[in-house]
Specification:
Layout: H1 5-10, H2 22-73, E1 77-83, E2 88-95, E3 101-103, E4 109-111, E5 117-124, E6 129-131, E7 138-141, E8 146-148, E9 151-157, E10 162-167, E11 173-176
Antiparallel strand pairs: 1-2, 1-7, 2-5, 3-4, 6-9, 7-8, 9-10, 10-11
Length: 189
């Protein structure tokens, strides 16, 4: 009986069917596993770097929000940065007195009467990016349109990369990276 066109292409000269042997299949799987094993750490580094840069951009936006809120309401707005008991950190923006709002151990905010929470951002330890606590909150003065004290907010990732947000007295923010380890940012001086 004659072979069909499809059968003629897949048969070898001796008339047996040709396919992959078990050894060939295992070799292909081993090579794929090696390639994936080498790519996963690179993907994790990329994801952590993106998370660090996204957190820095959000922090800078919140600093500008605090300044504009202080100017528009003509009352002080405070930026408080604290470490969380379970690891990680949080920052919040609030009106009212110093110490009027604080992060709780559960990642929520507690505010006294007369203080209003404007923004809360939790950076859990599992996220891999933390914001180093400040000894004193930053105060955005709406009447003078200034920030006191000036400060450097330090964001750090688990792999040692960091972004510093330098807040000037007029509320401008300059970003830099210690040792220039984050692409696109100038090294801190």
């Amino acid at each position: 009986m004659p072979h069909t066109h499809h059968q003629r292409r897949t048969c070898n000269r001796l008339g047996r069917w040709r396919g992959l042997s078990m050894v060939e299949l295992l070799c292909v799987l081993a090579i794929m596993a090696l390639l994936l094993g080498g790519a996963l750490p690179l993907l994790n580094d990329l994801r952590l770097g993106q998370r660090l840069q996204a957190t820095a951009a959000l922090l800078e936006t919140d600093i500008h929000f605090a300044r504009s809120s202080a100017i528009s309401t003509n009352q002080p707005v405070r930026l408080v940065v604290q470490a969380l008991q379970a690891g990680g950190s949080c920052y919040l923006l609030h009106t009212g007195t110093t110490g009027g709002c604080a992060c709780t151990g559960q990642g929520e905010a507690r505010c006294d009467a007369g203080s209003q929470l404007l923004r809360l951002e939790i950076l859990p330890a599992a996220a891999g990016v933390t914001l180093v606590s400040l000894a004193h909150p930053l105060v955005f003065d709406g009447r003078k349109a200034t920030v006191t004290p000036t400060a450097t907010l330090r964001l750090q990732s688990l792999d040692g990369r960091a972004i510093h947000q330098v807040v000037h007295i007029m509320g401008r923010v300059r970003s830099c990276s210690p040792a220039g380890r984050v692409g696109g940012l100038r090294p801190c001086q």
